[in-house]
Amino acid sequence: MVSSAAATVKQYLDELPADRRAVVSKVRAVVNKAMPKGYREGTLWGMIVWTIPLERYPDTYNKQPLAYAALAAQKNAFSLYLMGVYGDRKREAALAAAYKALGKKPDMGKSCVRFRTTDDLPLEAIASLIAGVGVDEYLARYEKARPKK
Predict the structure, then answer these.
(1) Chain centroid, CA 108 distance in Å
(2) Helix, strand or coil, per DSSP, at residue 27
(3) Which one, 25, 104, 123, 131, has the greatest CB density within 10 A?
(4) Cα dist. 61→1, 20, 64, 88, 95 in Å?
(5) 90 in a domain, yes or no?
(6) 8 Å CB contact between 129 and 82
(7) What is the pLDDT of residues 11-38, one digit of tens each?
(8) Nearest to residue 109, comparing CAs of 131, 140, 77, 141?
(9) Whole-structure pTM over 0.85, yes or no?
(10) Could you tell me if 73 and 20 are in contact, meaning their C-beta atoms sit under 8 angstroms apart?
(11) The domain spanning residue 18 has which CATH number?
């Protein structure tokens, strides 16, 4: 699955074959347990996302809830998007160190970590990184990065 039209997380998971659902479910459980209060889980852009709801922060560049993390089953792998790590050198270094300690080379883009199995992820470090950025801090970083009107 590259993109899903699922309207709910349950529908998204139900679309996946059992083996892929198990991987997504395990990572999802780690993310949900670590997620700071104020973020909301749902589906957007064909994947599971954790966002700051529009009721809390409506002034986004695309009029969509502000995404903090996302999880997707792609065609040949899985992707975990960690926007709270992107652009934060200290958090990026912590993630790189966690991969080194795991003995794995990360397959990463700017905010995306690609993986084939949960053994490819330093799940404890990812949970810590997710837990480390509350809504207020994330909004402050977002506003600081936005062009001034």
Answers:
(1) 13
(2) helix
(3) 123
(4) 28, 33, 8, 20, 28
(5) yes
(6) yes
(7) 999 999 999 999 999 999 999 999 999 9
(8) 77
(9) yes
(10) yes
(11) 3.90.1150.200
